[in-house]
Amino acid sequence: MKTMKFLAGLAVAIMAVFSFGSCDNDDTYYWYYPPIPNALVTVKPIDGAGFYMQLDDTTTLYPVNMATSPFGDKEVRALVCYREVERANEYYDKSVEVGWIDSILTKKAVPYPADGNVEEYGDDPIEIVRDWVNIAEDGYLTLRFRTRWGNTGVAHYVNLLTGVNPDDPYEVEFKHNAFGDVDGVAGDALVAFRLADLPDTEGKTVKLTLKYKSYSGEKTVQFDYCSRKSTTVEGQIDRAAYSSRLK
Length: 247
Hints:
This protein is mainly beta. Helix content is about 5%, strand content about 40%. It is globular.
């Protein structure tokens, strides 16, 4: 069972605006501290050839200063602060220098149980916080949500159910099980759900409807959604060049 805990300080970090500073004229950049993300990406490992990052549905990023993913062979959504640099190769849309990167909880959406028993997923309230990270892209729904966190020893359980509406396959439901940890202070966290089980939109953009239980009752919010587009990076890269970077 995958669970998650409150991410302290994240609310402040993701609301701030990231910028780069230069103290001279020789193009030497200095990363401001604390590092503030300026993008949300999918980190995509390539077997035997490092990794790349997917910025949106179509834009790929090549990290010139990182030969391997800090998350191993796992595909995850991550917050990153980067700056664009001169394009290093023809396989990716942009080349970037990564100053900081950190993954967020990334998990698969769950098909609605055939027996209708959703008790294990809980019925505790949350609020969806308006933020730039709330987006459906690259086959994921990424959300910033708020709830109450009291007992630091209790991990909350969050899931996204698909197949909740027979008349609309693009209606999904956020479920939260706080395991009794419902008092305490309000705090925010991030989670990304893989939407691989949804029907292919065949290149079209449709409305993805998210249902959730808020502190004031049932609510819905809609996102523009298009099924994940395949990239040709994996079939084109020069693996020998990557191998030289891994030594």
